[in-house]
């Protein structure tokens, strides 16, 4: 997958430069939506169909987006379709958000909990994690019953696992060593 990342990088950097000149948060939402739509299997299949004209593919893709799209975004999609690069949009989106986080001094935090947690609990947890990691965090919360209890937080390449499952695994390793 390093090849996809290498090909996607210039597109992500160019899109980020355009977004910085405008409203970065609006662009971030649009790029997220474009990446989500492009990752759908039906869109992937359509983009690989040689019978579909580039203009039809671009129009179809743009019609699938719910957000209002400006001319720059339309031109970007058209250019990707014409160059056969629409399948790169998920990777472009990932790299775009990494550039955005780097500029803002922020990071994405994947929080996995054993049980559903309220918005107030998420806010309190994020506040504590921001102190620990020393930067602003953009949380995404999911539930995994296999954790048994506690939470598992992934920020970049750092993992903070306070789940019961992790503690049981630690005990298992200690007892079998």
Quick description:
The protein is of the alpha+beta class and 177 residues long. The protein has helices spanning 2-21, 24-38, 41-47, 54-64, 71-82, 89-104, 119-133, 164-176, and strands at 106-113, 136-143, 151-155, 158-161.
Helical run tally: 8
From the alpha carbons, calculate the radius of gyration and give it in angstroms. Answer: 20 Å
SSE order: HHHHHHEHEEEH
Count the strands? Answer: 4
Mean pLDDT: 93
Q: Structural class given helices, strands, pairing?
A: alpha+beta
Report strand %.
5-15%
Please summarize the sheet with the most strands: 4 strands, mixed
Spans where pLDDT lies below 50 across 5 or more residues = none
Biggest sheet: strand arrangement: 2-1-3-4
The dominant shape is elongated
Span of the ends, CA to CA: 37 Å
Share of helix, binned: 55-70%
Describe this structure in words.
It is built from eight helices and four strands, in the order H-H-H-H-H-H-E-H-E-E-E-H. The chain has 177 residues and is α+β, with helices and mostly antiparallel strands. Strands 2-1-3-4 form a four-stranded mixed beta sheet. Strand 3 and strand 4 form a beta hairpin. Helix 1 runs antiparallel to helix 2. The longest helix has 20 residues. The two termini are 37 Å apart. The mean pLDDT is 93.
Short descriptors:
four-stranded mixed beta sheet; 14% strand; elongated; 177 residues; 8 helices; alpha+beta
